[in-house]
Amino acid sequence: MIMKISVIYFAGLREKAGIASEEIETSGATLGDLYEQLRERHQFSHRLEHIKFARQNDFCRSSEPISQGDSILIMPPVSGG
Predict the structure, then answer these.
(1) What is the pLDDT of residues 62-79, one digit of tens each?
(2) N or C: where does the chain have the smaller number of CB atoms within 10 Å of the terminal CB?
(3) pTM for the full predicted model
C-alpha cells in the first residue's frame, strides 16, 4: 500500500538531502524500510542501526510500522561539545 508521509531531516541528513523536509509516497512497511528507501534516494552514508526516528515527537524504533499521514523526523548520530 502506498502512503503519503512527511519526512523531516536533521543535521547531516538535511545537508546531504539538500532539503529540510519533504512529503513523499512510500510503500515501506516500517521506519527502517523508509530509511533504506531514502538512503538510496539521497545517498545517505549512515547505516540504519545508527539512525534515530521520531514520529509525532515521540522516539520510536526502526521496526515500527509507518501509517498514512505520519510525520517522521530522521536523525543521524550527532556529536558535540
Answers:
(1) 999 999 999 999 999 876
(2) C
(3) 0.89
